[in-house]
Amino acid sequence: MHDIIDLRSDTVTKPTEEMRKCMAQADVGDDIYGEDPTINHLQEYIADLFQKEAALFVPTGVMSNQIALAIHTKKGDEIIVESQSHLFHYETSAPSIISGVQMYCVPSQYGEIPLESISEAIRPPDYYFPTTSLVCLEQTHNRHGGTVLSLEYLQNVSEMLKEKEINFHCDGARIWNACAETGVSPHEYAKNFDTLSVCLSKGLGSPAGSVLLGNKKHIELARKWRKILGGGMRQSGILAAGGLYALQNHRKLLNNDHNNARLFAEMIASSGLCTIANSNHKVDTNIVIIECLQGIKPLDFIDECKKRHLIISMGRSNCVRAVFHFQVSTEQTIQAAHIAVEALQVLAH
Q1: How many domains does the chain have?
Q2: Ordered alpha helix ranges (H), the chain
Q3: What are the backbone dihedrals phi and psi of residue 348, each rounded to the nearest 5 degrees, phi first?
Q4: Domain ends where: 249, 265, 283?
Q5: 13, 327 in Cβ contact below 8 A?
Q6: 261 and 223 both lie in a single domain
Q7: Which H or E run includes 104?
Q8: Distance between CA atoms of 240 and 201, rounded to whole angstroms?
Q9: Which CATH number characterizes residue 210's domain?
Q10: Rounded distance, CA 78 to CA 98, Å?
């Protein structure tokens, strides 16, 4: 029986034995009372990494993003997001339901909305317009292929928004990948944003959890919203222990994922039956966007790969996505590339 190589997402990792031991041995208390020492340690640890005043552990990245929107906006406001953003595509219209805000979607080439486009999207103060209260950007950018938004760009956006007194939130689900790839510290990215959401269950490989970062006032409000949304947990230090282990042991593995993604992309592109459709024409981090050629249908490609024990998923705009993580070795990467090419060759005839 062949082992399955699962490249659907970097969320499919399973806790290692060492992580499980840390979770089983975690010192816990009631977090609603602020008495879970492992939760408190995780929040302090991440706040220190990003040099933000406070942090709050929440069950999911969607909840973290939605809490951020709730604390920065009021009903009837408008937020500016990139048109391929996770907030727009994958959060089930939550901004309209929870915060009562609408999204102004602005396209970009690879996640960096041009400054002039942001400026043009900000509403004038006329009474018949909604108030623009927040801009949200994604680091790294999922649907553009794990692209890294440059530090200089983020600094420029931040300066412009400060002048206009508009808040700035980062959906930093994969910000760890950006840090690993560029060498930019979490703090250097974070100082440009009012709040950040960072994920522990993607490339880092923890089984669950995200963390929202901001100043003390932000996090006080966020704690209330977490309770409203049902995200207040009790002895959740068991989950936090997995996050701490991931931060301390798996961050150093992220560059391997990036190298494997590039190797995979190079091997399958050499077949001439597909192109790499990452928005900036290169693989920045751990996500590969694949566009099939010669009339090959993406769903057929996915099915042929699955028959050969390789699982990949649909990406944006009729493309296929492969995402690398620390539980995919270089040997498996090469095997996956051979399978993908074989599937393409079968479909091309």
Answers
A1: 2
A2: 17-24, 37-50, 61-72, 86-89, 94, 115-121, 151-164, 175-182, 186-190, 216-228, 237-249, 254-269, 298-307, 330-348
A3: -80, -10
A4: 249
A5: yes
A6: no
A7: strand 102-106
A8: 11
A9: 3.40.640.10
A10: 13
26: which 2 tokens?
């975690």
pLDDT, tens only, 277-328 = 999 889 999 999 999 999 999 999 999 999 999 999 999 888 999 999 999 9
Pair of tokens at residue 311? 């699982």
Q: Are residues 192 and 294 in the same domain?
A: no
Strands 287-292 and 274-276: antiparallel
Residue whose entry in the numeric block shows the structure tokens 């689900």:
173
Amino acid (1-letter code) at residue 291: E
The pTM (predicted TM-score) of the whole model is 0.96
**Residue 122 shares a structural domain with residue 210:** yes
- Point out the domain boundary residue: 204, 232, 249: 249
The average confidence (pLDDT) of the chain is 97
Q: Cα separation of 21 and 18, whole Å?
A: 5
Instruction: Give Cβ neighbours of residue 235 (< 8 Å, ≥ 6 apart).
Output: 28, 29, 30, 31, 36
Distance in angstroms (rounded) separating the CA atoms of residues 54 and 50: 10
146 & 210 share domain: yes
Q: Which domain holds residue 220?
A: 17-249
Pairing verdict, β 78-82 and 54-58: unpaired
Cα–Cα distance between 84 and 138 in angstroms, integer? 10
The CATH code of the domain that includes 271 is 3.90.1150.10
